[in-house]
Amino acid sequence: LLGQPVALAPDCIGEEVKNLVNGMQNGDVVLLENLRFHKAETKNEPSFCEALAENGEIYVNDAFGTAHRAHASTTGVASYIKDSAVGYLMRRELQFLGEAVSEPVRPFVAILGGDKVSDKIKVIEKLLDKVQTLIIGGGMAFTFLKAKGRSVGDSLVDETMLDTARSFINKARVKGVKLTLPIDVICGKSPEEPIEKGTYLTKDIPDDLMGLDIGPESINMFNSILGNSNTILWNGPMGVFEIKDFELGTREMAIHLVSCISNGSKVIVGGGDTAAALETFGLIKEMSHVSTGGGASLELLSGKQLPALRSLER
Questions:
Q1: Angle formed at CA 136 by CA 133 and CA 141, multiple of 5 degrees
Q2: Within 10 Å of residue 262's Cβ, how many Cβ atoms?
Q3: Strands 184-190 and 210-214
Q4: Contact between 48 and 38 (Cβ < 8 Å)
Q5: Which positions ≥6 away from 110 have C-beta within 8 Å?
Q6: From start to end of the chain, where are the E strands?
Q7: Cut 0.85: pTM above it
Q8: CA 223 – CA 137 distance, rounded (Å)
Q9: What is the pLDDT of residues 138-180, one digit of tens each?
């Protein structure tokens, strides 16, 4: 940028902005920061969209991380500007999360972690039609383990999702997808009492302990599968990686994925906590692609059309 950015309060979409825009030179930038604090932005109000549009002739959306929100600056403004397009980052996200997942080089393996099964229902449904193997780790693994009749101690379980988990297990079997769960876990009392209490097979977790990370046998099993894969999608950590005692599974998986890339595999990482973990381990730049949008990447992977992209299809 050749000029100096100008920051404005979100309610200054009027004569002050117009005067600034009219006085701009080549290379100058007017920055309207914190638009989401403006109610008209989040409500996608037409008058606000029109006011934004009056200040430009071409609209380029390069904010993939907010592409799943139907807000004024991400969606509505495009209707009031003749020429619009996606930016380079948005295009890269679509190429990797869209094209690479819709037409992957097989074997295609997906790794899903994190806490909540409910957050990833649509993604799991979509992936069961695409992958050869689905690895499930993190807190959500215990809902699947309990759905299979395992005793999971005091581990995190979404009781409302047990029937859904059983349904996914059956669908995977019918479709010939290998649904793989941890066989051992590293346990503690709770994330609030972050002291490791030992490693147990998933069938032997003590009643007063909860699984907070995958164990070494699970790491070896998962890595063996990943080593024979050509396309790998990873969304969600394998444990409470923010705590040193429970970072092993996520860290070792990240390290192994780097070696998979060296052997020719493509590794696509969903944003959010997975990206944060890779940043912590200093490995974020080693991946084939790390998405900038947690919620947006999940919606795109689940087959939803993102509002920001839909607004550009004119």
A1: 150
A2: 9
A3: antiparallel
A4: yes
A5: 127, 130, 131, 133, 134, 135, 232, 233, 234, 235
A6: 6-8, 30-32, 58-61, 83-86, 108-112, 133-136, 178-180, 184-190, 193-201, 210-214, 231-235, 266-269, 289-290
A7: yes
A8: 13
A9: 999 999 999 999 989 999 999 999 999 999 999 999 999 999 9
Which residue is associated with the tokens 């950015």? 5
Q: What are the Cα distances from residue 280, in Å, to 155, 184, 260, 285, 288? A: 25, 24, 20, 12, 17
Residue 41's identity, in one-letter code, is E
Round to whole Å and give the CA distance between 89 and 291. 9
Whole-number Å distance between alpha carbons of 271 and 280: 14
Distance of alpha carbon 181 from alpha carbon 202, whole angstroms: 9
pLDDT confidence band for 2 (50 / 70 / 90)? very low
Identify the residue whose tokens are 């899903």: 112
Cis peptide bond upstream of 107, omega within 30: yes
Lookup: tokens for 224: 């063996």
Chain mean position to CA 214: 20
